[in-house]
Amino acid sequence: RSREMAKLTQLIDNEVFRAYATYATIVLLKMMLMSLITAYFRMTRKAFANPEDTASFGKGESAKKYLRIDPDVERVRRGHLNDLENVVPFFGIGLLYALSGPDLYTALLHFRIFAGARITHTFAYLIPLPQPGRGLSWAVGYAVTISMAYKVLKTALYL
């Protein structure tokens, strides 16, 4: 059992794994921030999805007007959903990629481009920036994840 623990501690000494852990943490925190931004927009726009969320604004019919869809809240929610659709695959594929033994420079390039693309995508969604900014930032991040997946399959091909 102590041998297994030694292997795990050796993983922390791996520079590529540390780079992955750093950038995975950055994009996961950014994704979590989207929940807070959604809550902020719900509160400032007074647009709630659940009746119990309107309790502080009155009861009955007076509170029902706060059960509504707001375009700004929905825009943030769509950005958050897009994060879920892209950060979760990066998290899994990036881990496999980091464990497949890439050189540090190439791994850092993948991780940094992905994180930059996702951060840019968020700003493009929230500001909003004109297209094709948001679409390009999405495509760049997606292409990075596909590139890492290709390298994992190429390294450990058991098809």
Automatic annotation (TrEMBL):
One of its GO terms (molecular function) is glutathione transferase activity. InterPro entries: MAPEG-like_dom_sf, Membr-assoc_MAPEG, MGST1-like. It catalyses: RX + glutathione = an S-substituted glutathione + a halide anion + H(+). It is a multi-pass membrane protein. Keywords: Acetylation, Endoplasmic reticulum, Membrane, Mitochondrion, Mitochondrion outer membrane, Transferase, Transmembrane, Transmembrane helix. GO terms for cellular component: endoplasmic reticulum membrane; mitochondrial outer membrane. It is found in: Endoplasmic reticulum membrane; Mitochondrion outer membrane. The chain crosses the membrane at residues 20-41, 87-115. The keyword Transmembrane helix applies. Its EC number is 2.5.1.18. It is an enzyme of class 2 (transferase). Belongs to the MAPEG family. Conjugation of reduced glutathione to a wide number of exogenous and endogenous hydrophobic electrophiles. Homotrimer; The trimer binds only one molecule of glutathione. This is Microsomal glutathione S-transferase 1. It comes from Chlamydotis macqueenii.
